[in-house]
Amino acid sequence: MKTAMILAAGRGERLRPLTDTQPKALCVVGGKPIIEHHIINLVRAGFKTIVINHAYLGGKIRQQLGNGERWNTRIIYSPEPPGGLETGGGIVNALRLLGDEPFITVNADIVTDYDYSKLTLPKGKQAHLVLVNTPSYRAYSDFGLSSQGLVENVNKNHLFSGIACYHPTLFCTLKPGRYSITPMLKQLASNARLSGELHTGQWIDIGSPEQLMLAESSLGLGPTMTYR
After folding, report:
1. In terms of DSSP H, where are the helices of 104-180?
2. CA triplet 110, 71, 86: central angle to 5 degrees?
3. How many domains does the chain have?
4. I need a labelling partner for 113 at 20 to 30 A (CA). Which of 15, 46, 162, 217 fits?
5. pTM of the entire predicted model
6. Where residue 151 sits, what CATH number does that domain have?
7. Which domain holds residue 63?
8. Tens digits of per-residue pLDDT, 160-194?
9. Which is nearest to 228 in space by CA: 43, 3, 67, 27?
10. What is the pLDDT of residues 134-154, one digit of tens each?
11. Are 53 and 93 contacting, i.e. CB atoms less than 8 angstroms apart?
12. Are 5 and 91 a contacting pair, CB within 8 Å?
């Protein structure tokens, strides 16, 4: 795989007042905006094209990142209307930019040491999720994971990390609009058509100022958080 999409259109209400003047993806951890850490690690993993969607204050993301030349990659932007299109609608809106081969998506508002080069789409599957153990600050879990590597809607003790691999055919019949990808993932899981893996390394969802501080204190400038 050579194409990745960073989902960066979220408003970041719970991060106010930080997000009153900047998009959530530009909040800083370890001396860099969160989204730059993803770009750096994606480039290291061999991704040549990175599609970034944006809505709220999207011009600031474009200004900060440019065309990707500084990381020796190509960045393409997928603008969305005010309020954004959520995860499902955002991917469908960008589908023309993602090509005909499997691609990965990464939520911009996470900090992780996951190695993107290891992410593959198993044969016969249209979607593969990276799950994490549900952290103490989350009151619910999203999925279970069977011993055969299938994502399940039972025995839930894992969260969807926001990292996934998809085949574009999964979205080709969907209409443009504003909607979450979660119902589709739940349906795939119900039909035993969704594979997954468990990441047990570092992962923090930047959903509040407290979690942003936790990411800063826990991760800092680790080996996957710098660029040389």
Report:
1. none
2. 35
3. 1
4. 15
5. 0.91
6. 3.90.550.10
7. 3-219
8. 999 999 999 999 899 999 999 999 999 999 999 99
9. 43
10. 988 777 899 999 999 999 999
11. yes
12. yes
